TrEMBL record:
CDD domains associated with the record: ABC_MJ0796_LolCDE_FtsE
Pfam family of the protein (one): ABC_tran
Classification via Gene3D superfamilies: P-loop containing nucleotide triphosphate hydrolases
UniProt feature coiled coil, ranges: none
The UniProt record lists the keyword Nucleus: no
Organism: Flagellimonas alvinocaridis
Name of the featured protein: ABC transporter ATP-binding protein
Lineage: Bacteria, Pseudomonadati, Bacteroidota, Flavobacteriia, Flavobacteriales
Length: 233
């Protein structure tokens, strides 16, 4: 599904350059639930933004569903991103003056799904995240956990092949964080491929694989069983 080879990324700041990703290699198969961990500044969001085609790498290869990304024109890349990738952010990124239902229906509007169908589909996805009774409420009337559920329903309504979540629990208390991760696990159990950026160990432990970034390189990449076994040796 995802393959990256020798990925490099630097940010230019005046005459200086900050080398953030220093040769990243990894593969994600269909149906995986992967945590990308690392301390602040290790390059997690930079990597996720490149995987999400929101930013480009300086060098290296990125292949998504067997298509090499760097060969795509800008228009094709945008179409490809909308078709294959769903995003969830720490700050929810909901539209404040639109109801929960309208927020979830928005990607379907961009996909030119007819109005009635998109309302029905949005309602189905809200129901799936347990928020049908809140469909006509504004984001300001929802709790943080509920907002993140709406954001997840919105991302899933477009039926992406891969869901990319950047610190999805970063703005939530522990109990709500676990509930949101339960939902992410449930979506993964249905066959969706999900990558979660987090700096929280307990959140990473709710994924099936943990990739550890440090100073722009992968220092550890283990299945959760290996991580757990390692804790007891
Ligand atoms: N657009 C940018 N321009 C310049 N420097 C940037 C830019 N984006 C990120 N950086 C720098 O690149 C480094 C890696 O940032 P990144 O956001 O990828 O790290 P992170 O691991 O996600 O950190 P955090 O957990 O704090 O979000 C940091 O030193 C950051 O200041």
């Amino acid at each position: 599904m995802i393959e990256i080879k020798d990925l490099h990324k630097s940010y230019k700041m005046g005459s200086n350059s900050l080398h953030v990703l220093k040769g990243i290699n990894f593969k994600v198969e269909d149906g995986e639930l992967v945590a990308i961990m690392g301390s602040s500044g290790s390059g997690k969001s930079t990597l996720l933004n490149i995987l999400g085609m929101l930013d480009g790498a300086d060098s290296g290869e990125y292949t998504l569903d067997e298509v090499p990304i760097k060969n795509l024109s800008e228009t094709k890349a945008a179409q490809y991103r909308n078709k294959f990738l769903g995003f969830v952010f720490q700050s929810f990124n909901l539209i404040n003056y639109k109801s929960a239902l309208e927020n979830v229906a928005l990607p379907l509007y961009y996909q030119k799904v007819p109005r009635k169908e998109r309302q029905e589909k949005a309602m189905q996805y809200l129901d799936k995240v347990g928020l049908k009774p809140w469909a006509h409420h504004l984001p300001s009337e929802l709790s943080g956990g509920q907002k993140q559920r709406v954001a997840i329903a919105r991302a899933m309504a477009a039926e992406p092949k891969v869901l990319l979540a950047d610190e999805p629990t970063g703005a939530l208390d522990s109990k709500t964080s676990y509930e949101v991760m339960d939902l992410i696990q449930q979506i993964n159990d249905e066959g969706n491929t999900i990558l979660v950026v987090t700096h929280e160990e307990d959140i990473a432990h709710m994924c099936k694989r943990i990739v550890h970034l440090k100073d722009g390189v992968i220092v550890e990449d283990k299945k959760i069983e290996q991580v757990r076994a390692g804790q007891y040796v």
